[in-house]
Design goal:
By secondary structure, the chain is an alpha/beta fold. It has 4 domains: 4-19 and 184-339, MoaB/Mog-like domain (Molybdenum Cofactor Biosythetic Enzyme, Chain A, 3-Layer(aba) Sandwich), CATH 3.40.980.10; 21-43 and 150-182, Molybdopterin biosynthesis moea protein, domain 2 (Alpha-Beta Complex), CATH 3.90.105.10; 48-145, Molybdopterin biosynthesis moeA protein, domain 3 (Beta Complex); 344-416, Beta Barrel (Beta-clip). It is built from 6 helices and 29 strands. The chain has a 6-stranded mixed β-sheet with strand order 8-5-7-6-10-9, with no helix packed on it. Strand 21 and strand 22 form a beta hairpin. Bound molecules: adenosine monophosphate and magnesium ion.
Length: 419
């Protein structure tokens, strides 16, 4: 049987980064940009009114108040301009245009005076009337979005490596990117095997077990930013199993649960072999998760499918997912090596934890900040089918092989379950 470290090294060795994907901007949410976005326009693309008001030349306003305040400025309104208007008119000195937010500033003007500054009921003045503007100390450029003040055409507005959130998607759209090149999103097929399995939305009869691994593993894949392909459940019979496995083998990764131990109906290893999957290892010194199976299928055209057979017991399945499947998916995604595995920290045990002579043991715990470092509080755990503690755990206490029991107060390694 393999040591855990040797198993992990084999997984890393067989996973290689997928090529980048070109996707429509709207589909890039949550993905990492691989190629910078270069703007094909200035932003704003032309001098733009940023308020509803009157476009004028600031120099036309003469401060007239004795105390240095601006007086009232009367100007003839010669045009009405709204967002979307494509008028290229020129405003002569001493005149102004009524202008709405989002309209291009007409030639001959350099500032916008908000509608609120109009007095004597002239706020409603349209072309042909006059407007009287109060406190006429106008600054050139006021309430104008100057062409290119946000970015220039040709500028790199989103560097490679940007995580595409809603704002980045908006900016890419404004900069003219119809498609963007993003990190690959591995497709991960998930198949639950076992004749005892029933859907989680039904009440299990005698001898039946709800397929809880299905939704759990789909969630685990989604949490990694990969694309889950749920293949549902399949019975322990060679032909249906082979057919479902064959479907899953079209994905970048196949994660199957159940049927990998040594029982009479543990048909999975043989099914993998019949489907052309090369076994890399079967069984690792680990608790929970000893029966884990890993192999690769070399598909026509050079692509590879990584194939994981996880033990059916849910806690084993999840621990094996986090230890083995996670680094494979991270590698496929092109993440740097320091992001492949869950982080590990040191903590002091708040109570004794059980280990094993022959293999490392990973058991659920909560973490708390103590006066001098982290404290790990072991959670009740009855074994590889028990998810109660895991569901609220912050981490897994990792006791190396040979440590049968770690006493309260001892310093242990904890795998953080959240990045
Ligand atoms: P196996 O690995 O197939 O020997 O299954 C080990 C244990 O895990 C058995 O008690 C199964 O009923 C249980 N099990 C297998 N698959 C699932 C699943 N998808 N959801 C919940 N429990 C499962
Ligand atoms: Mg089974």
């Amino acid at each position: 049987m393999l040591d855990l470290e040797a198993g992990l090294a084999l997984v890393e060795e067989h996973a290689s980064v997928l090529g980048p994907r070109r996707v429509r901007v709207a589909e890039a949410l949550g993905r990492r940009l691989m190629v910078a976005v270069i703007a094909d326009v200035d932003s704003p693309p032309w001098d733009r009114a940023m308020m509803d008001g009157f476009a004028l030349r600031a120099a036309d306003a003469q401060p007239s108040g004795r105390d240095g305040t601006g007086g009232v400025l009367e100007l003839e309104v010669v045009a009405d301009l709204a967002a979307g208007d494509q008028s290229r008119m020129v405003i002569r000195p001493g005149a102004c245009a009524r202008i709405m937010t989002g309209a291009p500033l007409p030639a001959g003007t350099d500032s916008v005076v908000p509608i609120e500054c109009a007095v004597d009921d002239t706020a409603a003045a349209h072309a042909g009337a006059s407007v009287r503007l109060l406190d006429a100390r106008f600054r050139p450029g006021q309430h104008v979005g100057l062409q290119g003040c946000a970015f220039r055409r040709g500028a790199e507005v989103l560097p490679a490596g940007t995580r595409m959130g809603p704002a980045a998607i908006g900016l890419a759209a404004e900069a003219g990117a119809v498609h963007v090149v993003v990190a690959p999103r591995p497709r991960v097929a998930i198949l639950s095997t076992g004749s005892e399995l029933v859907s989680p939305d039904s009440v299990p009869g005698f001898g039946q077990t709800r397929n809880s691994n299905g939704p759990m593993l789909v969630a685990a894949v989604s949490a990694l930013g990969a694309e889950p392909i749920p293949l549902g459940m399949v019975v322990d019979r060679p032909e249906p199993l082979r057919a479902q496995v064959a479907m899953g083998l079209a994905a970048d990764v196949l994660v199957l649960s159940g049927g990998v131990s040594a029982g009479d109906l543990d048909l999975v290893p043989d099914t993998f072999r019949r489907c052309g999957v090369e076994k890399v290892f079967h069984k690792v010194r680990l608790k929970p998760g000893k029966p884990v199976w890993f192999g690769v299928l070399r598909r026509a055209g050079g692509a590879t499918t990584l194939v994981f057979g996880l033990p059916g017991n849910p806690a084993s399945s999840l621990v094996c997912f986090e230890l083995f499947v996670r680094p494979a998916v991270r590698r496929l995604q092109g993440r740097p090596r320091n992001e492949w595995h869950l982080p590990r920290v040191r903590a002091r045990l708040a109570a004794a934890a059980k280990g094993a002579e022959d293999r490392p043991v990973y058991s659920p715990c909560r973490l708390q900040k103590g006066p001098d470092g982290l404290i790990a509080i072991p959670l009740p755990w009855t074994g590889s089918s028990d998810m109660v503690g895991l569901a609220v755990a912050d981490g897994l206490i990792a006791l190396p092989a040979g440590v049968r029991r770690a006493e309260e107060g001892s310093d242990v390694e904890v795998v953080l379950l959240h990045e």
